[in-house]
């Protein structure tokens, strides 16, 4: 089986995006020439577009079923232009509150703010919710819908989704919406969820397309504009086809690539731990294989990212100091961690050992340089 193509030298920001696979670009280009009509129309061009959209849904369902202990049908798969639209569609018609961890994405925390009676559950120093506390809040909040990320994209810590789902099901909750961002293509799906969202960018698919998977057992009210499996605007069928093609390529190679990434991250973790006044964040065991965040004390995240970029490495800041809001990371704050001087390394598919070796060599030099400037 062919391996992943090498990622760009020095690129260590998979969370921020990674190159679209050649097979996905080719599939999308072919679909672009054939699927330009409204797939809900009855004429020949519309039926052709509809067939391609249905095929993409079937492909996504088959691919996800290969990493799930509960098979997924094509009818349960929906496409959307973004995870934000997919998340809003997932909670459409839900009248009760939401139960979410304090390290959820701002997108899901905003949804919780919009639903009266929502409850936010605290996390430990690794960014993980307590399964019993989360399930108790979900069961104890009448009619609540759980919203929980499968893993945190900022520090890599995985959440006990399956344990919570088992407890919540026995307690009669409204269900569990799982944000699978960065998980698909890196680890199997958890069990017990009723709805799932993810972006195709996470598995080297195109930007501008996300998936919403809603199990038949869910008490879900589909948005009125959701026609033929596409929610939110006119269907971008070429993007859906490209996303399905990328997932077909990624998942058969995912386990081997995850093992390789895990080893590379372990090396970076060890190297970061040897630098004076550097704190490695997130769970060292229950984590995604390709993400690591560490804090370089007595420095700013923006300065570190800029210095790494000057030396040819693309990394991200674990805090929001480089964002327009200039607010500290709510994830790190919820963990009780230092919210400045943070660096997130996320390995794209096909990240080379040479890039990791070079990064490890530069890490202590960058830390010393930035502290000296400060």
From TrEMBL:
**Mind listing the GO molecular function terms for this protein?**
iron-sulfur cluster binding; metal ion binding; transferase activity
Key word Iron-sulfur present: yes
Query: Metal-binding among the record's keywords?
Result: yes
List the InterPro entries hit by this protein, alphabetically: Aminotrans_V_dom, Cysteine_dSase, PyrdxlP-dep_Trfase, PyrdxlP-dep_Trfase_major, PyrdxlP-dep_Trfase_small
Keyword terms, alphabetized: Iron, Iron-sulfur, Metal-binding, Pyridoxal phosphate, Transferase
Domain (Aminotransferase class V) spans 121-359
The record ties this protein, via SUPFAM superfamilies, to: PLP-dependent transferases
Q: Which cofactor does it need?
A: pyridoxal 5'-phosphate
What does the similarity note say? Belongs to the class-V pyridoxal-phosphate-dependent aminotransferase family. NifS/IscS subfamily.
Q: What is this protein called?
A: Unannotated protein
Question: Which species does this protein come from?
Answer: freshwater metagenome
* Phylogenetic classification of the source organism: unclassified sequences, metagenomes, ecological metagenomes
